[in-house]
Amino acid sequence: MFILFPFITRGIGPCIMEQNLIDAMEKRHSVRKYNSVPIPSDVVKTLREEIERCNVRGCLDMQLITDHPDAFDGIVSKVMKFSGVRNFIIVTGHEDEGLHRRAGYYGEKIVLLAQSLGLNTCWSIPSPNHKKGGYDLKAGYKTVCMIAIGYGIDQGVPHKSKPMHELCEVEEPMPEWFRKGMEAAMLAPTSMHRQKFKVILEDDGDVVVNPTGGRITRIDAGIVERHFELGAGKRLFHV
To answer: pTM of the full predicted structure?
Structure first.
């Protein structure tokens, strides 16, 4: 039914090869329909350990909630055609200018780890029923988004991407590392698959990802940053 990479269950850290995450990035598609198979305890432990590391680095409070079917039972979830969701990650943080971008960047780190562990995921705006999910919201913190997680009825389907030249600004000839970063960025999940972002290679060599829509595309920008780094093979963003 699903495949676990044996070395992953012994801890995260350097034992997860970057290539495994790139493979996960290429194979991952949004899944909204889930079966009732529980997530094994060792996989839950692995995810929670990495979530805690990301919380510290990203000044966030992400929490993995298991076996709570009510959180995705609201009207928003029905409109988005979710069904069978029993597990989810709630992404919260103290509201500031960079919160949504950090939520996307570190949330996608967990999403790709989950895919490498044989799980399926889907990003979502908070459902009106999300407070039924059995998690604690810290005082002064804001719920940014939710991520459904579990074993899907299927593996989802790929979506058509915009041409690369519409999603970036770069002087020709395009550096190879930038091209690889863009190929990864084009696989990033974005709101309604609209890809409202622009990746810019500046004269000093810095890379900037600009959201080109509303607030929710700030989350998309963070997701794109994580994908771009994996494709480019180097750390580029101070998130």
So the answer is: 0.90
Q: How far apart are CA 200 and CA 168, in angstroms?
A: 6
For residue range 75-107, list pLDDT tens digits in order. Answer: 777 788 999 999 999 999 998 999 999 999 999
> CA-to-CA distance for 221 and 208, rounded, in angstroms?
10
First to last CA, the chain: 35
Torsion of the alpha carbons at 130, 118, 50 and 232, rounded to the nearest 10? -110
The helix, strand and coil proportions of the chain, stated in percent and rounded to the nearest 5, come to 40, 20, 40
Domain ranges of the chain: 6-150, 164-232
Write down the architecture of domain 6-150 according to CATH. 3-Layer(aba) Sandwich (3.40)
